[in-house]
Design goal:
alpha+beta; six-stranded antiparallel sheet; about 30% helix; about 260 residues; 7 helices
Length: about 260
């Protein structure tokens, strides 16, 4: 008991209660391996595995969400080349000019820009971006597909690699690919725990399928007329996986609460 307690010594009241530490070993701060440790550092690897809590899909202890030490990509500006082509903002084989605005989740305008696209040649084409505080030229390239035709890509200014989406995070002065920003940025889902990621995933699937239906009447909307059954079935399978994650989280929480109730 002395050896185990020396590892956990210094934990807070939650740690003491969880591992049933005797009062003589309870101290708010302890020196472990020659350094001062807080509550999160006072539990050894083996003790962490004993902690009851939500489990991941492989049966291990679920990881906590990452702290906001990196910039969230979705909080900035996004350029999706495939979306621009579908909306006919840019047309392969011609010169085009258009303007665009970005809005936040409340519908408020956060930025605007004008674009000039030259997509006449498969190599050396350009997209020029003009904003109030910056100007940038992105090279475009068309690569042949396996079954014919061409796929257009941005050429990332940082990595010189092909990509379909460029990002300009808050505070940045230009657009890059996700890989071009490295570990300075992260997606919004990387800041969430498994349960919140599941809720977010379900909401995105619902928004994708809802079309003109009333969102309050449907949890999982039916297949839209324009969508293939194969694509819709993939959304259904993903939706069911998110449901399973949430169900496991509720069961784990219920088991933890019951365990705490009977241990008192």
């Amino acid at each position: 008991m002395r050896k185990v307690a020396s590892v956990i010594e210094g934990g807070g009241s939650e740690v003491w209660k969880l591992f049933r530490i005797k009062k003589k070993f309870r101290e708010h701060q302890g020196i472990i391996h020659g350094k001062l440790c807080g509550t999160s550092q006072n539990i050894g690897h083996a003790a962490r595995q004993l902690k009851t809590g939500p489990r991941d899909r492989k049966g291990g202890v679920a990881r906590m969400p990452k702290p906001r030490q990196r910039v969230c990509l979705e909080a900035g500006l996004k350029l999706d080349l495939n979306s621009l082509i579908r909306r006919q903002c840019v047309n392969p084989g011609s010169y085009t000019w258009f303007s665009s605005i970005w809005t936040n989740s409340y519908g408020e305008e956060i930025a605007s820009a004008s674009f000039t696209a030259c997509m006449v040649n498969h190599y050396g084409s350009k997209l020029r971006i003009q904003m109030e505080d910056m100007e940038q030229t992105i090279f475009l390239v068309a690569k042949s597909r396996t079954f014919g035709g061409y796929q257009w890509y941005f050429v990332c200014p940082a990595t010189n690699c092909c990509c379909s989406v460029l990002w300009k995070p808050p505070g940045a002065t230009h657009f890059r690919s996700r890989q071009g920003w490295g570990r300075k940025v992260a997606y919004a889902s990387q800041f969430l725990d498994p349960d919140n990621r599941a809720h977010r995933g379900k909401a995105k699937i619902k928004a994708r399928l809802i079309a003109d239906l009333n969102p309050d009447e449907w949890e999982l909307p039916p297949k839209p007329k324009w969508m293939r059954w194969r694509t819709y079935n993939r959304y259904v399978e993903r939706f069911d996986r998110y449901e399973d994650i949430l169900t496991d989280g509720i069961e784990g929480l219920a088991a933890k609460l019951l365990d705490e109730k009977y241990s008192q």
